[in-house]
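Translate sequence into structure tokens.
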Amino acid sequence: MTESREFCPRCGDAVPERRDPLPGAPSGRDALLCDDCYFADFELVDAPDRIEVLVCSGCGAVRRGESWRDVGARDYTDVAVDEVATALGVHVDAEDVEWGVEPEQVDENTIRMHCQFSGVVRGTLRSAAVTVPVKVSRGTCDRCGRIAGGYYAGIVQVRADDRELTAEERAEALSIAESYVADREADGDREAFITEIKETDDGPDLKLSSNRLAQNVATRITDELGGSFESYPTLVTEDGDGNEVYRVTFAVRLPRYAPDEILDPADGDGPVLVTGVSGGTRGIRLATGEAYGSTADGDGPPDATRLGTRGDATETTVVTVEDDRAIQVLDPVTYEARTVPNPAFVDDDAETVLAFEHEGAVHLVPRDP
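Result follows.
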């Protein structure tokens, strides 16, 4: 290696000739030091003497600066590892850096983090070991504080038009709301939460953290289950700037008819089993098996008569298939042989069928609409 005309500015020894540094490489006085002088004051890792972490005891969020952040930690050890990784600094000249950590649980609130580092500096493999105590304190984040205090801004009331909600509709409406709010939380929206779900005889009432969140929940429920909603704002206070603050109730009304209801549209073509209500009432004609669709803006035919539900149908025996239009079955009430229309949804070799009796008339019902 040839000697350059440059000398170490600290000890005066000649330093090896160096090529022009690559973009981003260290520069300045330290770059001119010989290796002995450079490594005399070199520290691979810059570590704080102690780290204090404030963790929400409710949701596990960590306080960083003036805000709370979800870190997805499984326990406080994960929180300590994450905080140490954020707080430690590795020398800018180090390349191919590798590190590992071994946590030591000192007590319930203190974790001692033993960290090992290695990296290549000036072509030399350097290593360092540091130990950082992490003190974990518990508190309550703004979000959990609001939930605990019963804070809410929007309300969603789920009801049905001129009928009771089915158990399936109640469960599905709550599932839609909870799934949407969970997705918002997963996307980092810490202001999205459900404060309370109250079941009433008429349907569930949901209290949500914001009017926008409540409106979006109401929209998704009606998109999935049909119907519509209206909003009713109520003035509750004024903010610090004098702006009016409203609490809004979103009244969801599901369609008048529900899936699995059996209706008579009074159009002369016989009863219909309702299979869907989003965007209009859809169903299957029990006499023929043909598809049925209303044009009543999602409320179904206004003069339809409720005859019963699919749950009212019972298993009965096929006596004989007379032809494509007629089939003979046992009356599910009197057990007499009855000839009824043979709909397309009945298999030719069926030995039993579902039958529904209403005011002396027998109708066959599909098993899977």
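Note: Residues 150-254 form one domain.
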